[in-house]
Known about the structure:
By secondary structure, the chain is an alpha+beta fold. It has a domain at 20-59. The protein contains 3 helices and 2 strands; from the N terminus they run ββααα. The protein has a two-stranded antiparallel sheet. β1 and β2 (13-18) form a beta hairpin. α2 packs across α3. One of its GO terms (molecular function) is DNA binding. Residues 22-60 form the HTH deoR-type domain.
Amino acid sequence: MGIKRDELYTPGGTVPGLALFINERRQQIAQILEVQQQVTVPALSRLFSVSEVTIRKDLA
C-alpha cells in the first residue's frame, strides 16, 4: 500500500507518526475502500496514527 512511517515536522519540533497531509490520507483511505469495500474508523485511526475524530472529518 506504500504507507511509510516518518517524522512529521512541526513548528514545535518533530512528532513521530505518519507524515501524511490530509489530502494524502484521504487518497489512501479511498484506495483502501476500493480494495476492501469497507473499513472501520478505529482501524483507520490506528493505521494512520490519528484520532477517530480526525478520520471522521476526513470522511465527511
